[in-house]
Description:
The structure holds 2 protein chains of 2 kinds.
Chain A lengths: L2 E4 L4 E4 L4 E5 L13 H9 L7 E7 L7 E7 L5 E6 L8 H11 L1 H4 L10 H11 L1
Antiparallel strand pairs in A: 1-2, 3-4, 4-5, 5-6
Helix pairs in contact in A: 2-4
Chain B lengths: L23 H7 L11 E5 L3 E6 L2 H11 L11 E3 L6 E6 L2 E6 L4 H12 L5 E4 L4 E7 L3 H6 L16 E6 L2 E6 L5 E7 H14 L6 E2 L9
Helix pairs in contact in B: 2-3
The structure holds zinc ion.
Zinc ion binds next to loops of chain A.
Amino acid sequence: MFHIYCPYCEELREEEEFHPKGQAHIARPEEPDACSDEEWGDYLFFRDNPRGIHHEMWLHAVGCRKFFNITRNTVSYEILETYRMGEQPTVGAEHLAREEKTASVQAAEGGQQTVGASDAALASVKGAQA
Amino acid sequence: MSNSVHVYDARADHATVTAESPLAYSFQRSGMPAPGEEGRAVVSERAFLGHLILRGGAIVLDEALREVLGIGLPGRPNSLTVDADGQRSVQWLSPDEWLLIVPGDEIFGLETRLRAHLGGSHVAIVDVSAGQTLIELSGEAAHEVLMKSTVYDVDPHAFTVGKGVTTLFAKTNVILRRPDEARWELIVRRSFADYVYRWLLDAGEEYGIGVARESRHEPQ
Ligand SMILES: [Zn+2]
């Protein structure tokens, strides 16, 4: 059991009241008729499955029944922020990179760390060492 | 824009047809234990109230409501506005949705006046009176019965008067609110009313829960 902050109810509510609804910020193609099958298929069926920072839609199903967005770390399950529909996230992959730079003694040892790092974060940590 | 919505009095025949509340059957089947001397919790149904769902922009609805009913929309999420004599209330349900509860015999007139005032505004008004009922819980142990039933924080210091939320209650959906110091209100779907009633009797047994007959708003 844990609590999630609903940006519409403006308070922390029990996780039982919420449902995850998949990847956020998927834009519908402006001109569907002009899409190739591949572009349309990507839009309809293909979703990111990152290790690390993920922006997701959630629904406050037993509550205000509004969709909103969550930035979540898929490795630690930590929720880094929640924000309303139409808004942009303030936390991205660079967040992990920053965290790792401060707390990554083991990452400095040859970059073999597998826990808590997205590929982008890992790359930027390596970049910082070079 | 022409207003092609058909508004009709859902209870126009209440002089000739006896209505039964959503809990009428439960009272017979599960009984109505009388509130005892030692009883610290009392449950009662306030049936046949008028429930109206308002959807639309806060500004236009607030203005119409102030004009027609004399009370405005609550300004904050999860809160409740009650009028001076405690008979009429508006509750925030979501950023564009409010629940208005008034005495049952006022609902038709109110809806008609609201629609007339709102004209062609982009709003939706739905009479849901027949779809839900209001269960009142009072007594010194009322919040203890609630604590056993919901994960929401119902400590009277946290859940202050004027607060109202939609949340989980014994695995079902309820609207839980606190119109004044002494009372808690549960608004439940008609089809879940029996379940919630029996849950309350069971959860309240240790506090000597009893059922009070409704004293206000009997249907005509
Ligand atoms: Zn919410």
